[in-house]
């Protein structure tokens, strides 16, 4: 690899500092990471009034930062760059290298957060610094929100807090976030780039049965555990109806056309005609595509009974649902009840109740510049819109009317690069090329009307 340019050295230092600032919930501090990023922005010329550090007293280490680079246009609405600072827990003894030291080895950066998502966080900070230092005046105001809590369900969530408490601070026409990006063939060759347009919503439900119980030496058929087990068996065999959104229809059409196999042909056929049952059967064999085509609900936790020698008085299961954009939490609960088909099985919501997932539009003013840059940086590589079956902080912004797009640019490998797992890594080329790409993308949007 060519030696780093001075601007790349500067970027690498911010990336390294972020990675080496532990931001796990157990032992780290997002607040410290946010303060360190604010210090860089201040050094680059940002005034205190352009920087908002925030944290709530009950969660002093789960703070974040909002920065604003004012645009010149009185009419163009702001662009928001979103990034989560927190990372999933990582145990030194389980990892090959120290997870909180940025190690560069064999063409990869290794560290917790190297991919998810401190490389992108550092791009956002670095871009704003260089924009300010270079005297660049965007038409559109560029906002940056670095927040904590994306990786945990029950801790403080900074994106949710900003959406609820400081919506004016982050108001924007649309936002760029993680969730997009490229995939290699597993041998370093980039085969596809994706822009994430929408995601499913997570909601947990509790299925519960109760029974008078009694002595296990004189059993009867009517039993809380059997009743629950029967309900779960019916749930296993239940399939939510097929749904296509603008995004997933475009995804299956384009990603299918890029393949040459039977699955590719079935994807194209299904995008054209969602009633094509033969095509659906083929596409649904892929577990990811199966989930992209519908709401899914699956049993994930089980409890029941109170003694080895007693008939159970109670049994319960947690059912984890991934709700298709536009479908409601209550509608999904009703569908579960109908699938179970037993009024003796109570189906209730488990908090937190997430907002309804709203699919952002396939806006050509968003997709167009991304397509142009993919063609420039990665000739011949298609850009496909994807809907995530997982969840990001985007859902909180979409709830207040800010469409969120997972930006293309950097890329990962088919094995998932150890994200959330062991020895997380990001290819060095992906980090530097992704940075150039994202900086150009931000400028393209910021200069547009
Ligand atoms: Zn992430």
Shape: globular
Bound molecules: zinc ion
What would the average pLDDT be, to the nearest integer? Answer: 96
What is the alpha-carbon Rg in Å? 24 Å
Bin the strand percentage.
Answer: 15-25%
How many strand segments?
19
As a percent range, the share of helical residues equals 25-40%
Q: List low-pLDDT spans.
A: none
Tally of separate helices: 14
Question: Cα distance, first to last residue?
Answer: 38 Å
Q: Major β-sheet, in short?
A: 10 strands, mixed
Task: Please identify the structural class as seen in this structure.
Answer: alpha/beta
Quick overview:
Strand 8 and strand 9 form a beta hairpin.
Lay out the secondary structure.
Blueprint: H1 6-19, H2 30-43, E1 51-54, E2 64-69, E3 79-84, E4 103-105, E5 108-110, H3 118-133, E6 142-147, H4 158-165, H5 167-170, E7 174-177, E8 181-184, E9 190-199, E10 201-210, E11 214-215, H6 224-236, H7 246-257, H8 262-272, H9 277-283, H10 287-292, E12 296-304, E13 310-311, E14 314-323, H11 329-340, E15 346-350, H12 364-377, E16 383-388, H13 394-398, E17 404-406, E18 411-412, E19 425-427, H14 428-447
Parallel strand pairs: 3-6, 3-7, 7-17, 8-18, 9-16
Antiparallel strand pairs: 1-2, 2-6, 4-5, 5-19, 8-9, 9-17, 10-14, 10-15, 11-13, 12-14
Helix pairs in contact: 1-3, 3-14, 7-8, 8-9, 12-14
